[in-house]
Amino acid sequence: MIIRKVEAFPFRANRDNAEGLGTAGSPSLLQPGQARYRWAETYPVLYSMDFETALVRLTLEDGTIGWGESQAPVAPEVACTIIDRILAPVLEGTDLDPTPQGIAELWWTMYNTMRVRGQTGGFMLDAIAGIDIALWDCVGKLRSLPVSTLCSEVSAPALSAVPAYLSGLPSGDPECVRPFHQGGFDCVKIFFQSATVDVLLQHCDRVQQILGPNGKIAVDALWRLTPESARHLAPELATRQILFLESPLAPESALAHAGLARDIETPIAIGESYRTVFELETFFTASAMGVVQPDIGRTGITEALRIAERARGLGITVIPHVSIAMGPQLAAAIHFAAAVHCPMLEYNPSVLNVANRYLREPLVLEHARYLVPQKPGLGIDLHDFAGRTV
Fold first, then answer.
1. Which of 91, 149, 237, 325 has its CA 20 to 30 A from that of 126?
2. How far from 221 is each of 151, 196, 301, CA to CA, in Å?
3. Angle at CA 164, nearest 5°, toward 136 and 362?
4. Residue 275 falls inside a structural domain
């Protein structure tokens, strides 16, 4: 089936930053100012005042449309320009073999366009990920199969539902966990958004009281720790039986993470900063993590499956990372998690609400589980708003 057209659209929507405070995509207060992109107050990362992402629409010669999405919480125009100028001209007119292997061949086609120039990560791979998701959506539709079933051609039969964990403390208040716990959530990830470790530990203790003895807590350190401060914190995490410590150190050093992993009891979780098996290989070989967290908006489905295969061979748990995302990226993460039998998947209430606002049929979360869409492809259809700022 010939690929007729590949289109990319930067998407931007207003959002209530106070409502999302303490959750994925806006874990910390932002410094005051007038700029669209502002520094977080407690660690050196830029965040947008808006909800931003990059959408991809791929059209085949028979009119089949596939939707994809690049993880682009800041400057989605960059990934879109890469698609428009580099990737779309390469793919348009190409014959798509409707199999996972056929998609993988096109992944390599895209990757090879710039690899000898050093563009093997970052925005380039974000752009590839968005197209890759759209290709899986198209192939699923061509074969009348959900993406999770299509993925399962290279793994075990897919799950019909994926357990969800609450990502963050909406509004930053531990008490906000209570209604989620009543709705079935027994696992919460707490962001180290506060100024002090004492406040972080107080939040952990209060949430544990709400969840009860069977509840589980993970901690996302937001790259704020040093090897020394992480080791100092480690006994407190071990006492509380923290499920995993996410992003403890700056993302560049595999050896630093490996040394920390050897010295502390709590498993280290990393992955959102990396797009390929190649980037993660030094972390795999150094035994630097107990949990790997591919972000499907950055890896795409094809490379996420390769990451999962590598992790499985090493006994590493796969729990996908989900941050700012619209329907294609969320649906792709759900299908991937179902195919790979991930023990849980990240859930941010405000992100799901925004995504569902633009879907003809919403993605469903029931009793703290994502229901896996069963229609062909990703099982979603977006309203026709592509290219608009809302």
1. 149
2. 32, 12, 26
3. 55
4. yes
| Predicted TM-score (pTM) of this structure | 0.95
Check whether residue 134 and residue 224 sit in a common domain. Answer: no
User: What residues have CB less than 8 Å from 353, skipping those under 6 apart?
Assistant: none
Of 131, 149, 167, which residue constitutes the final position of a domain?
149
Range of the domain at 331: 152-371
Say whether both 271 and 161 belong to one domain: yes
118-160 pLDDT tens trace: 999 999 999 999 999 999 999 999 999 999 999 986 557 889 9
